[in-house]
Amino acid sequence: MTTIPATMIRLAEELGPFPAGRPIGEELRARIEHELRNGDKVVIDFAGIEAVSPSFADELFAKLPPDALRNGHVELVNVPEGLNALIEFVVSGRELA
Amino acid sequence: MGSPNAGGTVEVTLSGGYRYPQLDRLVSGLQPLLTLDEPANVRLDMGGLVFIGPSALALLLAALKRLDARGLLIEGRIVPPRSRQTYNYLLRMDVLKALRVPAPARRFTRKAAVGFRPCQQITPDGDYPKVAWDLSKALCESCGATDAVTNAAVYISMHELAENVVQHAATPVGGFVAAQGWRRRQEIEIGFVDLGVGIRGSLRKNPEYADIGDDVAAITKAVKPRVTSTPKRNSGIGLFIMRELLNANGGSLYIRSGNGCVTTSSWVDNPSVSDVELPGTVVVIRARTDRALNLRQVYKGLTRYDHHSSDHDPAG
Asked: Is A89 in contact with B302 (Cβ distance < 8 A)?
């Protein structure tokens, strides 16, 4: 069985309990895209996150390469109630644009 | 209220109280400053001023700062409020500094009061996340809201609106934000002001909204999901989320831009048209601290909105 290396990003440890804004979303997305290009899987751990801003969610998740989330190349764990709906909302918005 | 005279002095008189419902009266009163297009001395008569709320304060400072940034403020003079309490408040909020009036001779000590911060400027090259953080922390302290849920909602709201100013106002002066909490009334007010292009001017940059007829239509459009002047960069859901959050909370969202004004409360939009134009945008959040201010709950509700189009906003 082949193991795909996975990079773990603990969101709350890196950005605090309520990450907000496009610049930090963009920075984090750039890191994730770099890992994906290297063939690594990325796991984003939401433990300790109370909420994120809509613009952060849009910048980080909606602008990822198509299917990165759907195909499991980027996996989200410990997502608090409500944030899944926000992520779906911003991702679907860009898919239909 | 005020007019330029042959000597090049613009006089503006502010009297009474300027709480958030009186913002239009303040816009009227500040017209001589907002429409000034040549250098002048400014005499600001605040002798009769008894109260100025945070949103009104942000508007006053934005008007003065814009004047200065455009090189139109030769010299500022102030008639201080007769109310000592009001005068001290204006000193703490750095209004004299904005007019470039020297500090008073008598000693004034800025107390490090819990929950107080002066009105803050938001500039494109400034640290607006820090502004949002500091101000939201002070606000939550002032009304005893120490839970993570409320802190998250207040901080994220401030951050979104600050980022809106930076990304859409299109003015090098940026904007101003002021906030106040009333522990007994269990209420907070946050006012963002920029004297930039305004909502209609911003939306019209997107060809999809090029034919928006008036300011009320522009504001009504702007609070719907997925409406933005820059669809490649932005998602157009910041103001929409604010509206949902405040409706659920029992608070209100007030947006004034150009001649238009829309106040949303209890899921009802109340539009109105003013005779007096505001060159820019004012956004006022009023929230109740005795009720939930819960972003996660708002996000959960997103599943009921049509993801395809802003026209399918069930809220109208």
From this structure: yes
Quick check: A81 and B296 CB within 8 A?
yes
Retrieve residue B241's tokens.
Answer: 């989320």
B148 contact residues in A (CB cutoff 8 A): 17, 50
Residue B33 CB neighbour total at 10 angstroms: 22
In this complex, do A82 and B296 lie within 8 Å of one another by their Cβ atoms?
A: yes
* Residue B289: count of CB within 10 angstroms of its CB: 23
CA dist B251 and B298 (Å) reads: 14
**Which residues of B fall below an 8 Å CB-CB distance to A?**
129, 132, 148-149, 151-153, 155-156, 159-160, 163, 225-226, 231, 233-235, 237-238, 241, 295-303, 305, 307-308
pLDDT one-digit tens code per residue, B146-204: 899 999 999 999 999 999 999 998 888 899 999 988 888 889 999 999 999 999 999 99
Compute the distance between CA of residue B242 and CA of residue B248 in angstroms, rounded to an integer: 10
Cα distance between residue B68 and residue B208, in whole Å: 36
Per-residue DSSP letter, B4: B
Report helix, strand or coil for B288: strand
Q: What is the pTM of this model?
A: 0.90
Residue B295 to residue B236: CA distance in whole angstroms: 17
Contact B160, A55 (CB under 8 A): yes
Distances in Å between the Cα of B146 and the Cα atoms of A58, B150, B157, B160, B208 are 28, 7, 16, 21, 43
Between helices B128-142 and B148-168, what is the axis angle to 10°?
A: 140
Choosing among A89, A90, A94, A95, which should be mutated to test the B contact, i.e. which has the most B CBs within 10 A? Answer: A89
Q: Which H/E stretch holds residue B296?
A: helix B295-300
β-pair partners for B191: B178, B284
ipTM: 0.91
Tell how strand A41-45 and strand A74-77 pair up.
parallel
Q: Determine contact, residues B145/B289, Cβ cutoff 8 Å.
A: yes
Q: What contacts B27, CB < 8 A, 6 or more positions away?
A: B34, B59, B256, B274, B276, B278
| Shortest CA gap B100–chain A (Å) | 33
